[in-house]
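Person: I keep going back and forth on a fold encoding question. Show me how you would write down a chain together with its backbone fold. Please set it down just below, with no commentary around it:
Helper:
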Amino acid sequence: MKGNAVNALKIPAWGMFIISMGVVLYLAKSIFIPIVLAIIASFLLAPAVNYLKKFRIPSTVGSFLILLLFSTVMVTAANYLADPVSVWVERLPAELRHIEDKLLTFKSSIANMRETTDKFGEIAATGSNTPAREVVVRGPNLLYVLLDNTQSFLVSVASFVMLPYFLLAFGDSTINSANQYWGSKESSATVIRIIQAAQHQVGRYLLLITAINISLGVLVALTMWALGMPNPIVWGASATILNYIPYVGAAINLVIITLVSLLTFNHFGQILLPPLALVLLNLLEEFVLPLFVGKLFIIDPILIFLFILLLGWLWGMAGIFMAVPLLMIMKIVFDQTQARESA
């Protein structure tokens, strides 16, 4: 009887715990987002730091060199892509009205939709003759907004810049020093083995995914260049970045390529070629990915999609990009724990 009462209390207790964690993750996202990004970046760069150790380069020096190289590549790529991306961001809203002229089959339905919208607008305008009372809501003063935003920005930058270095340079020593905080040497060694195995497998997974995404981006850039698309490097970079978001990223990139193709070409066959080529390259990537990654890193697509929705709701675009690496980290830690328990 007493055991049944305890079991009955577990479900609401877990529910309250999950809700509380969701609230904390949402309210403190300015702290959690850079920390999680730093952890993922350290997993990605850890194999390079370990490789430098073979040449007797200390982890403190190797971590600094790898982070410097990584930051240089990222800043250079962002600086190179900034101009063409900004041009397209400014151009697309103005050019979207020209798409209507090319989509002849949908022209009549668009015109009917506009007429209906205009009629509803006229009805809404004439339906109420009483002027609306203007309500002014005063927000916080400018000094408060600047201080609040500056504090969040500084915390985020400091966390993302400094934490990867500390994780790469002192991560192993931190794990080894954790021995003294555990009750028995056996449990301590088990936890350390699980953490080290998870680090190795997550680093390998992120490295493989990054290599595959870069290869896909190069193929997309070359294909777009061969088909006469403007700024092919931009579309290759978008394919590389958005491919970190399974399924959703490929769909977003397909929409972008289709819109640019509509704005660039006039003939129906030319318009179809770039999005069709992108679909074929994405299908090829889906076929190649399991060959390199293996079954160990395969996760149910429904679970991936739900996790992307959850983190996207909590943390916005940053959460969408971090969803799959975080899910992979949790899966690897869970698999390692289960393997140790069954051994």
User: Anything to note?
Assistant: Residues 32-103+161-342 form one domain. The chain has a mean pLDDT of 76.
